[in-house]
Amino acid sequence: MKVLxxxxxxxxxxxxxxxxxxxxxxxxxxxxxxxxxxALAECENISVMDFDRIADxxxxxxxxxxxxxxxxxxxxxxxxxxEAKGLRVFGPRKNAAIxxxxxxxxxxxxxxxxxxxxxxxxxDNAEDAMKYIESAQMPIVLKADGLALGKGVLxxxxxxxxxxxxxxxxxxxxxxxxxxxxxxxxxxxxREVSVLTFVDGKTIKPxxxxxxxxxxxxxxxxxxxxxxxxxxPSPFYTKEISEYCQKNIFEPTVAAMARxxxxxxxxxxxxxxxxxxxxxxLEYNARFGDPEAQVVLPRMNNDIIEVMNxxxxxxxxxxxxxxxxxxxxxVVLASEGYPVKYEKGFEIKGLDAFDGKDGYFCFHAGSxxxxxxxxxxxxxxxxxxxxxxxxxxxRANAYEAVKWVDFENKYCRSDIGxxxxxx
Length: 423
Ligand code: AMP
Ligand code: GLY
Known about the structure:
This protein is 29% helix and 28% strand. It has helices at 10-20, 51-60, 71-76, 78-84, 94-101, 103-112, 126-134, 159-171, 239-259, 293-296, 304-313, 391-402, and strands at 2-7, 27-32, 42-43, 65-68, 89-90, 120-123, 140-144, 153-156, 182-186, 191-200, 204-212, 215-217, 221-224, 229-232, 265-275, 278-285, 327-335, 360-364, 367-370, 373-376, 380-388, 410-411. The chain contains twelve helices and 22 strands. The protein folds into four domains: 2-93, 3-Layer(aba) Sandwich (Rossmann fold), CATH 3.40.50.20; 119-186, Dna Ligase, domain 1; 191-318, D-amino Acid Aminotransferase, Chain A, domain 1, CATH 3.30.470; 327-422, Glycinamide Ribonucleotide Synthetase, Chain A, domain 4.
């Protein structure tokens, strides 16, 4: 069969790599893709938001399945658009992707169905939000309702800071329309864990757990980024906790969406906080995490196409999802200055070192071809993933492989996976 993957980052490179391993696939296309993905898929420079061109391209290439990677097109309704043209699509429809697209929606859903999450209030004007803050307990968390490239969450330690946050989001409209509504929620403490799941509308099957490192610098300092590295599994996500989450969070979320007439088929990514009073939902995403996919998918035993087909057909209960009994660590190599200002266009050297090395992956996040060479083309450039028998070995392997590649302005965190020493 022929498969089209929509997206062009490290997550999509991990998806394409897994799709490439499927025995049923003989051709992969990717829009827009990147220089790494181009080794496995035919790439065409079409924006993920250009729904008409994506549909035309998929029809012209006669693809049997379209897999949508990023949040923006899912929330914008790419799945519906392609289905209307008769294409088969993996990824939630617009009315289900709202689970990620509106934080106010997801908080209200959790409240209505008793799914554990932080206490909150929704606001649609700055005045009411300011008034609420005056008598609220600090620290407090402000969240722009809509998609804001992962940057729409502010943790404020004083009333002044919180008021300034409301101003930025709702009055200065720093995140545009995403700030038309605001969620103000209780600050939770604990360890964070990401759990990606496959969902077919009724059945939900979790993948192995992972943990992300969102801040730009070591010791969780610096600005929030799209993610500077991940490890999988999380040693803090025990069997007991996973059973609790399946029963009290995962299954109730899928049932709630079905009940609301918003049948969810695709990936639900649960951002969880393991608090003293039990696991609670920080956020939902309607897609694979980036760079969570880069540590989870390399450890998956299943044929990803079989699992995705089961999600679309509503037969996920028949699938036995399983993961290797090992660990993986991904270290992101970024351009110095990310996430604010950085230069690109520098040659990436040493990529050949990964050829034929089992258990090592060099996922391209921001790369392009220039004059026959592969050059940097983004803030996050590469995700270096290594597998190992346990987390410590995987981490040592990943940091070894980080040395194999080089480009000007290369920088990475040196403490990805440090939390595992505390387990
Ligand atoms: P989100 O995009 O909702 O996952 O938020 C981004 C990050 O902000 C999370 O990964 C947490 O580190 C932090 N965060 C979000 N909500 C809360 C909360 N209620 N309490 C503490 N930290 C939070
Ligand atoms: N790594 C966090 C995300 O994909 O949202």
